[in-house]
Amino acid sequence: MKNYPLEIPVCQLDENNFFRGITSADLDPLEGGGHYLIPRLCIQTDEPEQKKGFIPQWNNGQWEYIEDHRGETVYSKNTGEKQIIVAVGKLPDDVTTFAPAPFTEWSEEAGAWVDVDNADELRLQDKKEKAGIITRSQFLTAIELQYSKNKKELLDIAERELVGDHLIKVRNVISEAQSFTLMNDDMWDFLMQTLNISNEQIFVLWDEAKKNY
Prior knowledge:
Layout: E1 7-13, E2 19-27, E3 36-37, E4 42-43, E5 54-59, E6 62-67, E7 73-76, E8 82-84, E9 95-96, E10 104-107, E11 112-115, H1 119-130, E12 133-135, H2 136-147, H3 151-161, H4 164-175, E13 179-181, H5 185-194, H6 199-212
Helix pairs in contact: 2-6, 3-4
């Protein structure tokens, strides 16, 4: 009489026939001939090969390998919105695994994120906004230390070079403002166009003023 093992390994599936792992089936004590009690959603076959990025699925009596990106982070090509893949299968055509940089849009032709038309302008505005606020005294101290122009000299330059509303707004900031922000277009233009300070130098000046004065 042949002896059969008390249990054998079987492959466990989910409701969609995807491989979940190995479990065991017990020998049926009531029937002979090596009959085993196969648990629900289990099959008696060889364990499938594990392939990175794929999940085995039992189909028509054999293992098929289906792309599996579950848990991966992708980005909408339309909005740049971050998403987490939750379903088995190929990645949707409207997402990419490449993260977008600010002020870019997806180009199918390039297969990459490319700058929007006014990206440089938007990046500058964003940098100016994130620079925050300093006091007028911090600003004037930085200008005087780094460019040898005190409050009176700045006012003289403004009176000589500017006219109209632009002059009034710049003069008021230099003379009376409690705080100063780079989002002030009149002062930004005064620094760049009138004092000939480049935007890179303005941000250096700004950082120095915040840290040291």
